[in-house]
């Protein structure tokens, strides 16, 4: 067993900055691409709405996945604590 089996992982500031910059570049590139496409205004509007919906649903999906992962960690910690309590209370030499 490792010393810290359920140690929380934390992203570094550099990783957070890289992720934010990458998101900003990708989002800006999509918006600029939509604006400069040779399309009618309603076609650009459709692409813009689809892009915004994609971004918002991506954030929602990431939050749901994170919440499920955290919930499973809490359940496993509770189960481990119950097992440790049972083992600590168990006396193999106790006569029933």
Automatic annotation (TrEMBL):
Pfam families: YiaAB. GO terms for biological process: DNA damage response. The keyword Membrane applies. It comes from Nocardia uniformis. Residues 15-67 form the YiaAB two helix domain. InterPro entries: YiaA-like (IPR038972), YiaAB (IPR008024). One of its GO terms (cellular component) is plasma membrane. PANTHER family: INNER MEMBRANE PROTEIN YIAA, INNER MEMBRANE PROTEIN YIAA-RELATED. Keywords: Membrane, Transmembrane, Transmembrane helix. The keyword Membrane applies. This is YiaAB two helix domain-containing protein. The chain crosses the membrane at residues 20-39, 45-65.
């Amino acid at each position: 067993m490792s010393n810290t089996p359920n140690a929380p992982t934390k992203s570094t500031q550099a990783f957070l900055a890289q992720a934010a910059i990458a998101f900003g570049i990708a989002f800006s590139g999509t918006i600029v691409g939509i604006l400069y496409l040779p399309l009618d205004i309603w076609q650009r509007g459709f692409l813009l709405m689809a892009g915004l919906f994609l971004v918002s649903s991506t954030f929602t999906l990431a939050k749901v996945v994170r919440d499920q992962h955290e919930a499973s960690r809490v359940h496993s910690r509770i189960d481990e604590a119950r097992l440790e309590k049972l083992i600590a209370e168990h006396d193999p030499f106790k006569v029933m």
